[in-house]
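Reviewers of the previous submission asked for a worked example of the structure-prediction workflow described in the proposal, so we include one complete record here. The input consisted solely of the amino acid sequence. No template or homolog information was supplied to the procedure at any stage.
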Amino acid sequence: MIPLSVLDLVSVREGHDVSEAMAATAQLARAAEEAGYKRFWIAEHHATEGVAGGAAAVVLAHVGHATSTIRIGSGGIMLPNHNPFVIAEQFGTLDALFPGRVDLGLGRAPGAGGRIAQALRKDLMHAAQSFPQDVVELRALLTGDIDLPITATPGLGAKVELWMLGSSLFGAQLAARLGLPYAFASHFAPDHLDEALAIYRRDFQPSAALDKPHAMVAMTAICAETDAEAVFLASSQDQAFVRLRTGDPGRLPPPVENYHESLPPGARAMLDHMSVARAVGSPATVREKILRFIERTDADELILSGSTYDPQARCQSLRLIAEALGET
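From that input alone, the workflow returned the following structure tokens.
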């Protein structure tokens, strides 16, 4: 079986606060480590009431101290929001704290709406255009492969595993050109999945970090003892997704019965569109869907997303999935 990892949004639940979200994330990371997952990644989002991972490096330090062996990383840092030097210092610090455990996944999107540009005092359109150069500079700050007029301390010499993220073809092209491992966000943007993986593998150029293509794909996965229970648990994330896409985001709501059936056709189609990268059900159901997805993508790794209102339910979901796939 290929390695399994976890993507967490640090979800803030209705009726609960950010402190509880942080505690739940640490608990989830420990459960993932105990169940044998390889990586635990945090996604950077901003100005989103139900997502508390904006300061991703700080959250990763919290997760690192709560665990001992699982790799911790960003899925991802939205580099246009930052400058390479600061990110090199942050992840160099994380590597000093948790040697050999740190991943740095980089994305080009800003991670929020247009208001974030003003809040960050950034021209995000220009920053996105300079993204390839910023990635090269950031790598040089960590590896020293290019002479730069300044040294990041901490940063230079850090054994950070650099990843390129993507939900379109751009990230695949850049990952191939730079010889980086590539993670595709098919859990929320499956349209270009097959083409992106094909481009990445076709155009890959070996680098000092990687001699052949290495692709990780993301999918939503929520598992419970029965299909009906898993569908019920998944309704929290489904509600949050529909609210976000219809302009009414908020905190993660409690699950509701028959949510999918209650939706108007447009919203239902929006959820159904994600089904290609979604495994919700009993262990047998989830196992079948995950194996089918791996066969389709020929992925080297799989990273699982999927928020539940009850933090314990997601910990149990990870355990059930690991057990269901453990003998594969």
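The CA atoms of residues 111 and 235 lie 24 Å apart. We consider this example representative of the routine output the project will generate in years two and three.
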